Predict the 3D structure of the following.
Amino acid sequence: MAFTMLAREWRSGDLRVLMLALLVAVSGITSVAFFVDRVDRAMTGRAAELLAADLLINGRDPISDEYADKAKALGLATARTLTFRSVVLAGESMRLTQVKAVSSAYPLRGQVKVADEAFASEEQVPASPPASGEVWLEGRLLAALGLRVGESIELGKSRLRISKVLTYEPDRGGQLFSIAPRVLMNLVDVPATGLVTVGSRVRHRLLVAGPRESVAQYRAQVQDNIPPNARVEGVEDARPELRQTLSRARQFLGLAALVGVLLAGAAIAVSAKRHAQRHLDVAALLRCFGSSRASVLRIYVTQILALAVIGGLLGSALGFLAQLGLTAILGVYVVGNLPAPGAAPVMIGLTVAIATLVGFGLPPLLNLHRVPPARVLRRDLAGTPVPSWLVYGAGLGSLFAIAWWQAGYLKLAAMVMGGALATLGVLALGAYLLVKLVGVARNRFGPAARFAVAGVTRRTGTSVMQVVAFGLGLMALLLLALVRGEMLQEWRRSLPPDAPNFFLVNVQTDEVVRLQAELTRQQISIDSIHPMVRGRLTAINGEAVTPQQFADPRAQRLAAREANLSFSADKPEHNPLLEGRWWQPGEDGWSVEAGIAKSLGIGVGDTLRFHIAGLDVEGPVTSLRQVKWDSFNVNFFYLASPDLLRDYPATYITNFHLDPSRRDVLAALVREFPSVTVIDVDALMNQVRGIMDHATMAIEYVFAFTILAGLMVLFATIHATLDERRHEAAILRTLGAQRRLLLGGLLTEFALLGGLAGFLAAATATATAAVVASQVFGFTFDGNAWTWLVGILFGAGIVTLAGFMGTRSVIRQPPIYTLRSL
C-alpha cells in the first residue's frame, strides 16, 4: 500500500519539490565525494609510483652510502634524487625553477614521460634519465623562456642542452599546487653547477625497490637509526603531504556543500509539512478502513525511506556528473589520469539522503498516525500538531551528525554549524528588518506594487525564509568573487610603491661582501643582509617537543619541522615588542614571534632548546615580537642574540626593490653569483593568483548547489502557499481585477524578494570582505558598486523567473474552479 500511495502522490506532483531538494543535497555532497575518491584511489593504486620506489629515505642532509649498501646486500635496487630551487637563465630571461637531479637508475617504479616539443600530444618513455650535459624542461618553462628543444639554458655555472620536454614524473603526483616548474637533470652534473653548497636548502632521497619481503626487512633495519631530519616513507604511507592536502580539500569542499544540505533540508521540511496537511484526510480514511496507528505510521515511514533510497541513488548519479566539473577545475593539479570511482560515494549519498529526509521530512509526518477517524466528519480534528522546534531540531541534529562525520572531529563540526547558524541568524534579522521597512513604504507604490508588497509583508515568515535561503548562497558567491577579483588587487595597490619585490636567498658567507658591493655598484639599495640558520625546536623548559602533544594542527606542523633562525644585536624596526625586553650586549636570549609563541605555548622566561647541525643550543626567551608578514620585509619566527648562533653554519638572505625596467640587472647578478636564488615576488604573486583562481572556482562550483538549494526553498514555500494564492487571485478576479494586474503583482513580489536577497547578500559579502581585508591583509576595503548591482539584479532576475514558474497556475486557473473548491 505504501508504494502504491507513493506512486499516486508522485504522479500528482505533491512530492516533486521535496525530491528535487533531496537531489540537490545529495548531488552537492557526492560531487565532492566522487572527486576525492578518484584522487584517493589513484594514490592507492599508484602508491609505489608516487614514490618512484617501494621505499625511500627522505632528508635534508646527504644520505650515507651505508644505507644504499645495506639495500644492495639484500638484493634491492637503489637510486638517488636531489631537489632544490634555482634560477634558470636563457639570455636575459630568467625563471625560478624546482630542479631535480637523478641517478641513472631513476625511477625504480613508474615511468618518466617526455615529448619532442612543448605541449605535444605524443609522449615517449625514455630508456634512461637525461644524459650528462642535458636537461629536460616542462613545457610551461620552455614557453616562459621562449626556448625550444635543442637550445641551451644556464643553470648555475653550467650550460646545459635541452634534449626533451618533460611531461610526467611518477613521484611528482603529490605536489598539489606546485608553483615552480620542473627541470630534470643528471645527478653527476650537479657539482659543476656550484649550486649545492654547505647550508643550501636541498632535499636528498634514497630510493629502494625489490621483493616485498626484502623491502620490509630493509625497513626494519634502518627505521630506528635514520639520520636526523630524515624519515622513511613506504608504499603504505606514500606522499603524506598529498594525503593531508586531499583530506583538507575533502573537509573544506564537503563542509561547503553542507550549507546546501542545510537549505535543502529547510525546503524538505516545508514540503513535508504541506504534504502532511494534505494527507490528514487520507490518514483519517485509513483509520476508518481499519488501519491501526502503527500501520499508518509504518506506511509514511516506508514512503520516506523509499524516497530517501531513490533520492540517494539519483542524487549520487547527478553527483558523479557534477564531479566532472570539479575534475576540470582542479584536475590540472593532479598528475596522471584519474581512475573510475568506487561505491563509497554512493553509500555517502544514501546516508546523506536518509539522514536529511528522516531529519527534516519525517517529523511533520509523525502527526498523521494520530489523526482520529472522526476527521472524516469533523474537519477541525487534525491530531496533535508536531512543534516546529521538533521539526527543525531533528533536522539540525541529523545535519550536525553529517557535519561531524564530514569534518572528522567534533570541534570543527561545531564551528561550522555554529558559524552557519549565526550567519543564518544575521541574514534572517536583516531580512526581517528589510521586509518591515518595505511594508512601511507600501502606500507610495502603484496598484501592482502595493499588491506585491502586501503579499511580502502578510507572509513575513515565509518571505524572510525565501530571502535568507537565496541570499545565503548568493552571499557566498559574491564574497568569493570579491576575494578572487578585488581584494588581492586592492592589497597589492595598498603596498608602498617601493615595497621589496625581489629576494636573494642562499647567499654564502664568503659571498656577502662581494654581493653587497655588486648591489651598491648596480645602485640597488638594501637595508641589511640577514644570516639564516636551520634548526629544530626540540625542548621547551627541558621538556621534549613532539607534534603529538599539540591539538592545534598548526602547532603540530611547527613542532615537526625545522625553522629558519636568525641572530641580530639590534631589534628590527618593523618588529615591535609586545612583551619582555631586547637583550643587552653579551646576553644570551631568544625573541619569538607572538603568533608561534601562542601556538606552541611559549612565554617570556621560558627556555628553548634547538638542534642545529648536530648540536643543541639553549637560551631563555626575553621577548615576544609582532611580525607583519605581508610587509615583504625579511622576518623570522625566532631571533637569537648574536653569541648563540654566530658560530653555526649560515646562509644569508636580503631583499630589495627593483624597477621593472631594470630586470636585466638580475641576469648579470645570477651569472656572477650562481648559487644565489632570486625570488621574484611579482611572478610568485601571479602564480599564487592562478592557484587562488582555481581554488575559489572550485568553492564557487560547490556553492552553486547552495543557490540551487535556495531555489528549492523558494519553490517549496511557493508550493506551500499555492492554495492561499489561488484563493486571493480568485477573489480579486471576482471583484474585477485584471489578469495583467495579478501577474504584475506576482512578478513584482518575486522581484522584490530577489532584490532584497541580493541587497542583503551584497551587504554581508562586502562587510565580510572588509573585515578580512582589515584583519588579514591590513588595508581598508570599501567595496565596489558592481557587487551591489550584480547582487540585486541577479537576485531579482533569478527569483522572479523561479517565482513565475512556480505560480503560473495561480494566473491561469479560472476563478470559478477555485471558488467551487471552497
Remarks:
- The chain has four domains: 1-60+241-408, 81-204, 424-501+680-822, 526-656.
- The two ends are 30 Å apart (CA to CA).
- The first helix runs from residue 2 to 12.
